[in-house]
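anyone seen this seq b4? input:
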Amino acid sequence: MIQININDISNKVRSTELDELNVFLSGSIVESDSLIDAFGKIQNQINSGSFWSGSYTPLNIDQTTAQEITGGQPIQDTLTASELVATDANKKLQSLAVVTYPSLTELSYVKGVTSAIQTQLNNAGGGIWTAKTGTFATVATWTFAGTAAQAAMIIDSLFTCTDSAGTTRRIGYISAATEAGGTVTVTVVSDTDLAAGDKDFYIATNRKSKDYEHLVSIPGEVTADATYPQGLWYLNLRYASYLLPVDIAVRTAATGVTASCTTNIYKDTTALFNVAPDLSTNASLAAQRPTTKDLAAGEDISLRIPASAGTTLAADYQARLYIIPQHLFISF
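predicted toks r here
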């Protein structure tokens, strides 16, 4: 006769094992109705939740339905202590190794942050730039909400913005700013025209265009012939720079052997103006854009008269150049 202690089963056998044992006994070995009936009663207790003494909530193996664990947390031997946890491609938990991902200490450094860090860095701009919520107005003006005092403060300051796609950066300085009805209208001299959709406007109120101005004045006589140009001014760049639009004025027209005498600004041997100012004609050319604004460290910038048929010419010539270090824009 087969004897089975039901108490031993209830103390030592899991519910899933009882299921399997019940099927096994009823299907192949045991023919005793009483034994089958005993196992049936055990199964009924399991189904009704009264098999175990005290209250319990079995842990769902399939966790597709939310379940609260009140008696403690499961221990995952596959995880590493004190590392961030994420799911892998199979939705299994995995530790994020500190070799690649932030440690808990590194993550604690951002505690207390109240807004996007990148936005704060952009607004800080290394202590130089102040962000403005600007709106395009014309090819040379943009607006922002502000006061008359703010308008007065930003005149002559450097500014920058990007086009609507954020791929082209415009640079220049503020030539005028006026306030009316809480709106500040900003007039700029820039390397390219402003356009609809321009964004990310910044102003450097503590960086004025006058800080980077080179004023060249050539009074008296200048000499040039067909072989040798006349060099009037020369500068070797110590660092990469931007050349902003140039102001040129002929105060007294040149007179001499020839009927014309042109001048140009050169980057090494490359002329930077497609239309060279003529010294034989009184002219005042404001904000003339060079063919390129990019100047490399070590390049020579010069103001000179190209080879001419003339020999001696009297003129009073002035040029104002703004050469801005590129490293001022490194935060963008």
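Residues 9-14, 23-31 have pLDDT under 50 and may be disordered. The chain has six helices and 20 strands. kinda curious what u guys think
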